[in-house]
Amino acid sequence: MRLKIINVVGARPNFMKIAPLLAAYRDHPSIEPVLVHTGQHYDEAMSRLFFGQLGLPEPDINLGVGSGSHAAQTAAILTAFEPVLLEHRPDLVLVVGDVNSTIACGLAAVKLGFRLAHVEAGLRSGDRSMPEEINRVLTDAISDYLFCTERAAVENLLAEGIARERIFLVGNVMIDTLLSNRQRAEQSPILSALGLEDGQYVVATLHRPSNVDSPDDLRPILEALLGIAARRAVVFPIHPRTRRNFAAFGFEDAIRQRPSLKLVEPLGYLDFLKLMAHARAVLTDSGGIQEETTILGVPCLTLRRNTERPITVTQGTNRLVEPTRDAILSALGDVETRSPGVPAMPALWDGKAAGRICEILLCA
Ligand code: UD1
Q1: What CATH topology corresponds to 3-172+349-363?
Q2: Which of 79, 171, 310, 322 has the most crowded CB, counting CB atoms within 10 A?
Q3: Closest approach atom of ligand 1 to CA 97
Q4: How far is the CA of 101 from the centre of ligand 1 (A)?
Q5: CATH fold for the domain made of 183-337
Q6: What is the pLDDT of residue 364?
Q7: Model pTM greater than 0.90?
């Protein structure tokens, strides 16, 4: 019996999550995958680069929706995805993560009666002002198969009344990708290209609206980064949203005057993995980086008041830090006085999550 699965990607963090699934499908000839890219991210550095590095095939279909307000972007994806579903009539639609493409494609699918699988289900920050939290709650509410990365996610879903037989603790597909690329990433020349010394620099990434969309939120974080850069190199691969806001808020001069704060274009997967693996610490507001640093054993300071990934704090190297100048400087000071972190491996973060998902889908 054939199992035709439409797999959806849209934004940068989706690519690392879908890659191991597409690879695992190849072991099962009865699975017929179709890859749909919504086009939510479209820059070379935010999208195409990852396809090459992760060995992803060209998408079978690109919806080309691009940027827009949440409503406009979500609506454009819903409208563009519906005819794809009607043409391909899949046995299942699989969505990953928590971006607008995730909920939009999930909603289009279930409205037409197609079964839906959500990979990375059940994560909850408890903060409904985060667009991703809304996407997570809604996608989980309409999914038939909910694949979880950690035990807390299973508990969250049960507490929301989701039937136990729909929930599967399978591990973390993003970590599948990390483990299979770890050695290859070591070949990246990024440290010498940026003039960095192993273990001596800090990596920063920032793109959450709550940190970067207002000058009052972004200024204290920038002040902290400038303070850190006064004594060690800080590498900051910058998201297009954040770059635009630095310019709009008039912060570019201050950055230019501190060349040890190195703003670089968004990096490819292998360069970024190497950069994280050899950093003294990572400062971020990303979701996935909290998990990746846990596996790498690199201290992670998450500039948020909550996390949907509690295992990275309880078992890993992650610590939540108020996004204020003093809190960031003090947390980094703490990290610097301690010996470097130790890699942790939460249960089932073993590089085999995609294989488990395949087996479950084939029995479904
Ligand atoms: C999206 C996800 C977020 C994820 C992040 C990873 C949602 C709600 N948010 O946020 O969860 O962590 O991706 O990067 O889905 N832009 C470009 N080129 C691109 C893509 C975006 O210039 O290729 C610019 C556009 O001006 C756009 C802005 O970045 O308006 C934001 O892009 P968008 O897709 O709306 O959300 P992200 O902030 O990237």
Answers
A1: Rossmann fold (3.40.50)
A2: 171
A3: 11
A4: 11
A5: Rossmann fold (3.40.50)
A6: 79
A7: yes
